[in-house]
Design brief:
It is a single chain. The chain has helices at about 5, 25-30, 50, 60, 70-80, 90-105, 120, 135-145, 165-175, 195-210, 225-235, 245-250, 260-280, 290-295, 305-310, 315-325; strands at about 10-15, 40-50, 80-85, 110-115, 150-155, 180-185, 215-220, 240. By secondary structure, it is of the alpha/beta class. The protein folds into 2 domains: about 5-250, Alpha-Beta Barrel (TIM Barrel); about 260-325. Strand 1, helix 2 (about 25-30) and strand 2 form a beta-alpha-beta unit. Helix 6 packs parallel to helix 8. The longest helix is centred in the last third of the chain and has 19 residues, at about 260-280. It is globular, with a radius of gyration of 20 Å. About 45% of the residues are buried. This is tRNA-dihydrouridine synthase. Belongs to the dus family. Keywords: Flavoprotein, FMN, NADP, Nucleotide-binding, Oxidoreductase, RNA-binding, tRNA processing, tRNA-binding. Its EC number is 1.3.1.-.
């Protein structure tokens, strides 16, 4: 069945789901500074279906699915799709939660996390652990598809301890997901070493053979929009999903201008802080923001000193004061 995934002209460009990164604040900031011709799909943070199914834990877990009014309006204006990523290991819970998310939230699609290599998640038999449980993995995909009219995609890795791309991707393709994104590392590698793009290409050729209608994206170590376009062509893909590359350059999806001024960087730092404060004040730890400050405070005189001060800030007002001291940026 065709979906928005099939309507986007290649190369499809997506920002990966990342814990404590791709919340509504950061997604809105990225959307604001991106060219909609260069960014097509955003993902939520990882959302546990068990948590969504828990009478006590649901309130906290469902924060990962919050979309601010300003973000939603901006996405609609720019025509960018928003997909909720979910994870777990029980098909019946996937079915229940997928139905609930479909009915109660305004997402454009659902994505199943079968790639996260974090040990405490893997110990539960979830995410990348499902690579070695193909029957269960297929049941999860099919149960999710059965529960929703939204397109259901899958993000995964090439294997557990070694590449097992041929066997595993064949089994994923059998369930006919709306799209597949393959990270070119095994579970054992975590984020170490280099992503193996020959394995990603191998999987794409299987897709060509078995289900050419399924869009196929690669993921891993892509640090520029130009590299993303090159890899799409070189490895025969439909697009690229960007993860850590966004930390090298938040303007990743607006590639025409490569040099950003100090004023532009600090403007985005302030905007990000204000969005986070508005959306999460009293709900999320202020210190989460500090991982982002590093991406705005570089490449200009005094950046390291400013960065050190921001790392020691204790609240939003201190951040605004530090920025004010270091620039003429209005806060």
């Amino acid at each position: 069945m065709s979906s928005f995934w099939n309507e986007i002209k290649a190369p499809i460009m997506a920002l990966a789901p990342m814990e404590d990164v791709t919340d509504t604040s950061f997604r809105e900031l990225v959307t604001r500074i991106s060219d909609p011709a260069c960014l097509h799909i955003l993902f939520t943070e990882f959302t546990a279906v068990d948590g969504m199914n828990h009478p006590v834990g649901k309130e906290r877990v469902s924060e990962r699915l919050i979309v601010s009014e300003s973000e939603r309006k901006l996405l609609q204006e720019k025509g960018i799709k928003l997909v909720a990523q979910i994870w777990g290991n029980k098909p019946e819970v996937f079915h229940k939660v997928a139905k609930e998310i479909t009915e109660e939230y305004g997402f454009d699609g659902l994505d199943i996390n079968m790639g996260c290599p974090v040990k405490n998640v893997v110990k539960q038999g979830s995410c990348s652990a499902l690579i070695d449980q193909p029957t269960l993995a297929q049941e999860i995909i099919l149960a999710t598809k059965e529960a929703t009219h939204l397109p259901v995609s899958v993000k995964t890795r090439t294997g557990i301890k070694k590449h097992d791309t041929d066997r595993w991707i064949r089994q994923v393709i059998e369930t006919k997901p709306a799209a597949i994104t393959l990270h070119g590392r095994t579970q054992k590698q975590q984020s170490d070493g280099l992503a193996d793009w020959t394995e990603i290409a191998k999987a794409a050729r299987l897709r060509d053979e078995l289900a050419p209608e399924i869009p196929f994206l690669g993921n891993g170590d892509v640090l520029s929009y130009q590299q993303a376009c090159q890899y799409t062509s070189e490895y025969g893909l439909d697009g690229i999903m960007i993860g850590r590359g966004i930390f090298h350059n938040p303007w990743f999806f607006n590639p025409e201008e490569t040099e950003r001024s100090k004023e532009e960087k600090l403007e985005q730092l302030v905007l990000h802080t204000k969005l986070f404060e508005r959306n999460w004040n009293g709900k999320k730890n202020f210190n989460i923001l500090k991982r982002f400050y590093k991406i705005y405070t570089n490449g200009f005189a005094g950046a390291s000193k400013m960065r050190a001060e921001l790392m020691n800030a204790n609240n939003y007002d201190e951040v605004y004061r530090i920025v004010d001291v270091h620039s003429d940026c209005t806060v």
